[in-house]
Amino acid sequence: MNTKELQDALQTLSYPGLNRTLGELKLISEAKVTNGSANIELLTVSDESYLTVKSAIEAALADQFSELHITKKGTVKKDINYGNSAAPNNRAPYAANVIAVTSGKGGVGKSTVSVNLAIALAQKGYKVGILDADVYGPNVPRLTNTDLEKIRWNDDNKIVPSENYGIKIMSVALTTPTSDTPLVWRSSVAVSALIQFLEDVAWGELDFMVIDMPPGTGDIQLTMAQELPLTAGVIVTTPQLVASDDVSRAIRMFQDIHVPIAGLVENMSYFIAPDTGTRYDIFGSGGGERLSQRYNVPLLGQIPLNMEIREGSDNGEPPIALGSESLKEYYRSIVDRMLESSRFRL
Ligand SMILES: Nc1ncnc2c1ncn2[C@@H]1O[C@H](COP(=O)(O)OP(=O)(O)O)[C@@H](O)[C@H]1O
Ligand SMILES: [Mg+2]
Q1: Phi-psi category of residue 258: left, alpha or beta, with phi > 0 → left and psi -120 to 50 → alpha
Q2: Which of 64, 244, 251, 325 is spaced 20 to 30 A from 93 at the CA atom?
Q3: How large is the greatest C-alpha to C-alpha distance in the chain, in angstroms?
């Protein structure tokens, strides 16, 4: 094989588990053949996807060369490559709007915010589905009290989503024997499962599909951006993370993949002592505001650290549905601001 033949072979090689070639995903930075040995440099976004692509190439081409060197281009921030997310596929034509909820890190309340926003939208009369794309920490079923449900198919061989609090719900947790069964999937398998959840679930027509994304900026985010026209991104953070690189990366990812950012939600912002009513800015204040100015993204709202939110969420009783009026108001006002800040098809 000469250089040209190698480049052609790489361009047409499929990404494992995806219906896309390495060429379409623009994952090859350089490929050269010298004296029978090949040097390939990849432009993958994460170590995981680097290893996936590397083994796919080795399996396909190792016997063609005396030596096959595959390296990863240094992850200079500029080089993060999101493929052709500027012109994504549409695996969910039934959804008028798709909102991706992300965070730089786990544990900041991303799922809690996703679930309460989805239900708040349904309370406004919209048809809403929530896809739990956090395959390694799927907790949407627990938050919506659907964690004991088992997967079912309808007569058209489509998966029937769970339903509660007026929203349709799909999660990998529905496919595992118990909701806390750990998933040991390669990211390519997780990606295929999510695509199946978009295509093979009986969602019906939706005004909004809310996606609870995994934290960070990896393969799953990349795929969702390529397979769906995301209408808006919502970023959840906490005051102590506001100034961190993780949040900046999450914001930059949306900007890089041309997804309009509806705004930022600062969760666990402050604490109001239930006995005295005194407000404590445990992690300082004003961080969300500063971040919003720095990146020119709206601050949709601040949600306090609140015992009722914690208890309700962990018991599958979302505050927006079953909490006190003051808690409901936090989520309602965030939804109102979000609907104002982005262009939704309604
Ligand atoms: N505003 C809040 N006040 C108190 N507890 C919260 C709040 N938001 C989330 N939690 C709790 O924090 C934990 C992590 O929230 P979760 O939504 O699962 O985070 P993530 O999806 O980002 O990992 C859960 O136990 C949840 O009940
Ligand atoms: Mg979560």
Answers
A1: left
A2: 251
A3: 78
Q: CATH topology of 3-79 equal to that of 95-341?
A: no
Task: Report pLDDT digits (tens) over 183-210.
Answer: 777 778 888 889 999 999 999 999 999 9
Q: Give first-to-last CA distance, the chain, whole Å.
A: 54
CB 225 within 8 A of CB 198: no
Distance CA 157, CA 151 (A): 12
- By most ligand atoms within 8 Å of CB, the mutation choice from 112, 132, 326 for ligand 1 is 112
CB atoms within 10 A of CB 278: 9
Average pLDDT across the chain, whole number: 89
Measured CA to CA, the distance from residue 112 to residue 115 in angstroms comes to: 5
Around ligand 1, the residues with Cβ closer than 6 Å are 103, 106-112, 139, 267-268, 303, 305-306, 309-310, 313-314
Of the listed ligands, the closest to the CA of 133 is 2
- In this predicted structure, what is the pLDDT of residue 184? 72
- What's the per-residue H, E or C state across 10-38? HHHCECCCCCCECCCCCCEEEEEEECCEE
Going by C-alpha positions, the residue among 342, 340, 306 that lies closest to residue 112 is 306
CA atoms within 13 A on the CB side of 296: 2
pLDDT digits (tens, 9 = 90+) for 125-134: 999 999 999 9
For 145-172, b/e burial (b = at least 16 CB within 10 A) is bbbebeeeeeeeeebebbebbebbbbbb
The CATH number of 3-79 is 3.30.300.130
Q: What is the CATH number of domain 95-341?
A: 3.40.50.300
Report domain extents, the chain: 3-79, 95-341
What pTM was computed for the model? 0.78
